[in-house]
Amino acid sequence: MTEHRVERLQELIKEELGSILQREIKDPRVGFASITAVRVSNDKSHVKIYVSVLGDEQQKQDTMAGLESAKGFIRREIGRRVRLRHTPEIHFYPDTSLEEGMRVISLLNQINTQKEDQT
């Protein structure tokens, strides 16, 4: 499969998954979650889905548990909507890049404040 086709498949899965999360997942544990990235393995047998969750640590854990619980339904819907010969296994991973980015910005602001205080 060419790199362009893999990227297109990843984007299609991301779009469909976003639609599924917005309209069809009824689990109250799933809070405000957004799909930040989708990575399909070379043999298309596995897909890694990175999820960013807004909220405290408990809400993040609850959302990830809700997504794990709905994994079968989500996989079936992805298979039906994307129409692959074999529907890949789905693996959810929390995406902490936003929190890490905010922490780096906070550290940079602290350094700038310290420099201003020294001058």
CATH class: Alpha Beta
Helix- and strand-based class?
Answer: alpha+beta
In what order do the strands lie side by side in the largest sheet? 1-2-3
Number of helices: 4
Roughly what fraction of the amino acids lie in strands? 15-25%
- Mean pLDDT, rounded to whole units? 88
| Distance from first to last alpha carbon | 58 Å
| Uncertain stretches | none
Question: In sequence order, what are the helices and strands, one letter per element?
Answer: HEEHHEH
Architecture, CATH level 2? 2-Layer Sandwich
Largest beta-sheet details: 3 strands, mixed
For the secondary structure, the number of strands is 3
Look up the CATH topology.
GMP Synthetase, Chain A, domain 3
How many structural domains does the protein architecture include? 1
Helical amount: 55-70%
**Mind telling me the CATH superfamily name?**
K homology (KH) domain
Form type: elongated
Computed Rg: 18 Å
